[in-house]
Amino acid sequence: MKGLTPFNRKSSLRKTGGFEDFYNMLDDFFTSPLSTGRSLMEESFKLDIKDKEDKYVVEADLPGVKKEEINLKLDDGRLTISIERKEEEEKKEKDYLHRERKYSSMSRSIYLGDVKDEDVSAKLDDGVLCIEIPKDEEKEKTKNIPIE
User: Fold this and answer.
1) Is the pLDDT of residue 136 over 90?
2) pTM of the model
3) What confidence tens digit (pLDDT) does each residue in 34-92 have?
4) pLDDT at residue 15 tops 80
5) How many domains does the chain have?
6) In 3D, which of 66, 67, 49 has the Cα closest to residue 58?
7) How many Cα atoms occupy the beta-carbon half-sphere of 47 within 13 Å?
8) What whole-number distance in Å separates Cα of residue 134 and Cα of residue 56?
9) Residue 144, φ and ψ in degrees, nearest 5
């Protein structure tokens, strides 16, 4: 049996031109194993969210990230974890100069609902960021309206 290949708009039975060739080029670019593009999963970080009785516990896997590179923000029940890294490297040897600069950033936001803004704690330990966010008292979701 021949190897299976993903479907794209190419067909050896017909000749195409114009936009059809453009679509084929896009299909090949995004499905080719040799493409240098990165997937979203590689550019993000993993999150675990635990719902405890009195708090939420959020754990983010951030190997190699320093706490100075992390920014945490809690805004109206929405937790945002942002990371910004800047790296510069310079090597000088006999006849050449090697210089590299890299900048990368990533961010994740999650909506937790009714949480308290105070008493939030965060700790980075062995590449795992653990954030504890206390829940606000449960507000009654339904309200009876008296009729006059």
Assistant:
1) no
2) 0.60
3) 544 444 445 578 999 999 989 999 999 998 889 899 999 999 889 999 999 888 888 88
4) no
5) 1
6) 49
7) 16
8) 6
9) -80, 135
DSSP state of 118: S
Which CATH number characterizes residue 89's domain?
2.60.40.790
Token pair 């105070």 is at which residue?
A: 118
Report the 10 Å Cβ neighbour count for 135: 16
What's the DSSP call for residue 64? T
Q: Which residues of 12-35 are buried (b: 16+ CB within 10 A; e: fewer)?
A: eeeeeeeeeeeeeeeeeeeeeeee
27 within domain boundaries: no
The predicted-structure confidence for 88-108, as pLDDT tens digits, reads as follows 888 888 877 888 888 888 899
Q: In whole angstroms, give the CA distance from residue 122 to residue 132.
A: 6
19 lies in some domain:
no
